[in-house]
Amino acid sequence: MARPEQVLVLEPQHELKFRGPFTDVVTATLKLTNPTDRNVCFKVKTTAPRRYCVRPNSGIIDAGTSINVSVMLQPFDYDPNEKSKHKFMVQSMLAPYDMTDMEGVWKEAKPEELMDSKLRCTFEMPLENDKTHESESNKTVSSSTSSVKTEHPALPKSASASLDDGEVKKIMEECKRLQMEVQRLREENKQIREDDGLRKRKVMSMVTPHSSAMATSAVRDEGLSTRVLALCMLFFVIGVIIGKLLL
């Protein structure tokens, strides 16, 4: 007795195309549609089960719905002179209304209840033009990515520039404060020298010439130390400013 005609609609109907390169897994999609008002059980079989991974390879398609079956070809050494002999078969049957065990239904199914459709497999390598197009696309993507990478680090630079401006502002304020401090030290030094002048004159009138020379030397050393301290502070501030600007 002839088998009934397949009720499922297959897309594609007769051929599964796998497009290389085949150095990685290549996937083809098989769409199964159930246009009937009954649930349909299905199975997907192949003549080369070690070369393919099928998900899902069996199941139930509800009435008026469809599913996509992924057929994954495993990597292999492609030979353009070798024709593919791999085939797939989609087997189906109307699901019983009281079905509880799908495996049991398949085992108990009668031959006249089974429907099947066969598909052959073809392998294709990309044409040279396609390779060139893909290469140009990859270059475009790469250049776009590099431009994004180039533009992205510019943000931290602007942020660091604003930070440098803030630091410079703080340094300038500190410089002004230190300059005022130096000016104050100069005034104090001037006052000290004036006071020392008065003491010097008093000492000159009260001590021997030798003691007068010692007092004069002490006064000069004190005034010199104050000026050296003020100049060191000023040079330190200028050095800090120059270092910050160079960074």
Task: Tag the structure with descriptive keywords.
247 residues; alpha+beta; Immunoglobulin-like; five-stranded mixed β-sheet; four-stranded antiparallel β-sheet; rod-shaped; transmembrane helix; VAP; FFAT motif binding; acetylation; transmembrane
Brief account:
This protein is α+β, with helices and mostly antiparallel strands and 247 residues long. It is built from four helices and nine strands.
Itemize the secondary structure elements and their pairings.
Elements: E1 9-11, E2 15-19, E3 26-33, E4 40-46, E5 52-55, E6 58-61, E7 66-73, E8 87-94, H1 102-108, E9 115-124, H2 128-151, H3 154-206, H4 209-246
Helix pairs in contact: 3-4
What would your notes on this structure say?
This protein is 49% helix and 23% strand. It has 247 residues and is an alpha+beta fold. The protein has a domain at 9-124: Immunoglobulins (Immunoglobulin-like, Sandwich). The strands form two sheets. The protein has a five-stranded mixed β-sheet with strand order 2-9-8-4-6, with no helix packed on it. The protein has a four-stranded antiparallel β-sheet with strand order 1-3-7-5, with no helix packed on it. The two termini are 91 Å apart. Mean pLDDT is 78; it is low at 147-163. GO terms for molecular function: FFAT motif binding.
